[in-house]
Amino acid sequence: MDFSNFIKHFRFQILAAGTIAIAFGFWFSKGLNLDPSLHSRFLRDSPQIETYRDLQESFGTEPLLALVWETEEPVLGETKLLRLRQLTDQLAQTEGIQSVISLSNLSRNQQKPDTEILKQLPLTKKLLLSPDGKRTVLALIPSASAILPSKGLALTKKIESGVKEFLLPTERAFLTGPLAMQSKAIELSRKDLFFSVSAITLFGIVLFGFIYRSWRTITAAVLAGLSGVSFSCGLMAILNVSLSQFALMAVPILAAIGFENAVYFIGHFTNEKNRGADDTEALRKMFQSCTIPCLWAVITTIAGFATLLFSDLSQIRSIGLIVVTGIPFTLISSLTILPAILIGVKKQKMATPGPFLVATIKKNPILLASVLIVATLVLSYGIRFVHLRFDFPRIFKTGTAPQMEIAEMDEKLFGAASFEILMQTTDGTDFSHPEKFKLIQGMQMAMGLTAPVATTLSPIDIGISAYVLTSGIPKNAKALWNNRNRLLREIRASDDGLLRQWLSKDLKKVRIHVRVRTDKQEYYDKMIQALNYMKTSFAGVGVDVSWSGFALLYKEMEKKMLAELIRNCTMAFVTVCLLLIVLFRSVKWGLLAMIPNVLPILITMGIMGWTGAGFSLALMILPAVGLGLIVDDTIHILWGMKQGMKEGMTPAEAVEKTLSGVGRACMLSSVVLILGFASLITSGFISNIQLALWMPTLLTLALLFDLVALPLGVILWNKKPQR
Hints:
single chain, 723 residues, alpha+beta, 4-stranded antiparallel sheet, 8 strands, elongated
């Protein structure tokens, strides 16, 4: 019994087993571990990771959340302060919140707070109260366990739900900060990616229904597309592999690859049925025509995506791991479940693009080739203008609620992002020493001169605020200020609970909180240069300076993006080229196969350069993903042409026969992928909008090169008929 008869004989058992396997895969995938550790989320061996750990151990987590509460009346009124105290207590009791810094904390020990003193306190002016007095910020410090992606998302939703119930009709509040931005991005990304998979499925169903008019082909394509996603995600969940939230980007990509494989099998099967073959013969011909090119398409696609596994960025590695694991299952599904469903498809005549495309190419192949070459050179020249653009902290589309809230923090309050500076004495002294004490102020002044920094907070600001509220304004403030040793100890004695998060017990380690504007991130490099200069200068006087925080940990990854992009592109192109040479057993045919794979990527990058679009973290995967998606079409088309010429056909005849057989499948799969990715254009998440613009551009160019440039190259390169 050959494989075709085996499929036909046991088709119901195969369908049952396949359906159960897909269902179980989706069931287990609910347990995907999308909570990677802090270390695995950012660059490997980054010194800022170690600084962040030191900060957590010494002072706790940075204030990653900021709740802005706005009222019609001044916040420092008696009624509003009472409501603020209720809100502060409510937030402090929320699971996952370590502590809350608010105006309520400052006035808690006073029966009737002196509002004029409150207004003048450094902590109030630099962090808690807007200049008009009608907005106040509650700085929320989450526990270390709450900064994991899914737990952070749950925490922010819980806070927003509680605050919504607390608000009066005349009041307004919103939650922002690095953790809130991350959580909202995750929520938007999940919705968008679900929408993308649904769009790919819907477009596939509509186009298959219109072209093939058979529920069998629709069911076969959908199951083949979902099988890889189900098996890969289920396996990752069972093995409890730690993945980045960015790994969800692999879901529509893997679904698209599975759908693409299914299209070729269905196309060959229906072609044989149209020629009058019965089910068994159609299956046999389908396996003969599809198995080898599909196997090599899977191998080259795996090779392209495997280059992502060598990335230093966990977000990129997670995508590569999901796709590489799932691709083999899409082929297995196409060889088993799909043919079992196709049995019974009826004969149906359909137009093929082969004759039209060959006639177009044969009219004036030299002119057509010249136009393609000139257009390619002009458009790809734009690569020299391509630049890198970082997503964080500008990650939402302008005009969306999250981005408007971030802009409000930048313009009307204290900056939407933050990071922490850690200063530690290394010569046996502490910061009560007059010279060391001055360095704290010197660091604050230096940071205040850099464009992105909105304000800074140090133990001096926190301690003076607590001291004044507890002991009142000192009669001889100047004498107290000149005696640094006494000042620090007086400050500690006034409110050790609050100061504990800013100054170590031995006075040898201090933390400076820096609020940063997100709309001036083009100046971040100068800010880092200033920090490096201060680090070098302070080292000479016995103080070590380091810095960290979510904003800078993300920003640090930007330095690796160019090297990552070049390495991923080079590895993917070289590996796929070598595999294609092995597949076709010819350097000439292998290089010819790379033309419709390399040039569309170069042209897309060139268009990005001409238009001023930059390579963001999300678009780092564009070359590898693009190559993985378009190489399949090239292999199927070139394989058919080479086989036709081996049978004695002229190049034009081989091209016409191949495009008549797989041209429709190539067009169908490309159109579905283009529409699926383009559906993300309505997203509020910038990364998805970028994919919605540039992935369809790449796929459209790849389709053009596969259907026009590749046949044109075969005809011009092989002028004599081959026997």
